[in-house]
Design brief:
280 residues, alpha/beta, seven-stranded mixed beta sheet, 10 strands
Length: 280
């Protein structure tokens, strides 16, 4: 078998290309991770060197190989009820604020991005069903998006490992999951409560149709972006939110350091960010 070498120039070319396409920037510390997966894709695609693969990647009009590459390069690390304080904030503070100002009684729209394997979106659905008193009075739409099509297929299937569900309260486990030889299967009612879509946050055409959200959960994604991509993401979310809408970030992320578009809101359970009411 031909031994494929990714030299420093190759890595830099790939690094720049992948950043332009996704906003994700791989630091030199990720070199082993990137090289290993890049070589896997070179071989899987029938090429035997970086140069021919990179040429194919750039000029393939279908974009099939780029999507396959994205699927192996993106990191999907999550579990149910991760950073639970924000779900408590959603139910106890954010939703009451949204409802108090939603005079037209249109559906409450929640966008989860990145979706990963669906744990976050399904946790939101469970929290609304079990902990929010307004669940029978309001229509809710939960849309969960990711750039990785493979992980979206996994999310739709709703089959999880013991590690993914280890923080699910026992009564929720009993109510919403069935243990199978392959893992813990989420019930169909919850799976049907979430719509999963493929979106590249850095592609203006992809995000153009995502509008009128009341709440966005974007946790632990911006840490993979550089300052320019973070700013672009912040502006995309601003356009996607209703005036007065909220965005929840990961515990180590701060919108204040990225954009001045948002207002800081301190609730008892968490700090979140709000699109001003005069926002357009």
């Amino acid at each position: 078998m031909t031994k494929i070498i990714i030299n420093d120039d190759d890595f830099q070319k790939f690094q720049e290309f992948f950043y332009r396409k996704t906003g994700i920037q791989f630091e030199a510390s990720k070199r082993y991770f990137v090289d290993k997966r890049l070589i896997e894709r070179i071989l899987e695609s029938g090429n035997d060197n970086f140069r021919s693969y990179f040429t194919m990647l750039r000029f393939q009009t279908s974009g099939v190989e780029l999507q396959a590459l994205v699927n192996v390069m993106t990191i999907n690390e999550t579990y149910f009820f991760r950073e639970e304080y924000q779900f408590n904030c959603l139910v106890n503070s954010i939703l009451p604020d949204v409802v108090a100002n939603k005079k037209d009684r249109s559906p409450i729209r929640i966008w989860v991005i990145p979706s990963s394997s669906g744990e976050e979106a399904y946790t939101i659905a469970m929290c609304l069903l079990e902990r929010w008193g307004g669940i029978n009075d309001w229509d809710i739409e939960i849309i969960s998006s990711d750039i990785d099509t493979k992980i979206l297929t996994q999310a739709r299937a709703g089959l999880y490992s013991a590690r993914s569900v280890k923080h699910v309260p026992p009564k929720y486990m009993q109510k919403y999951f069935t243990q199978t030889p392959l893992g813990y299967q989420l019930c169909s009612d919850l799976r049907n409560a979430v719509e999963f879509t493929r979106v590249n946050l850095m592609d203006a055409a992809d995000v153009r149709g995502y509008r009128h959200f009341d709440i966005i959960f974007c946790r632990n994604l911006l840490i993979y972006f550089d300052d320019l991509s973070r700013k672009q993401a912040a502006e995309t979310f601003y356009d996607a939110l209703q005036p007065g809408g909220f965005i929840c970030l990961g515990h180590s992320e701060s919108m204040s350091r990225i954009s001045s578009l948002y207002k800081l809101r301190k609730f008892p359970e968490a700090i979140v960010y709000q699109k001003p009411w005069d926002g357009k």
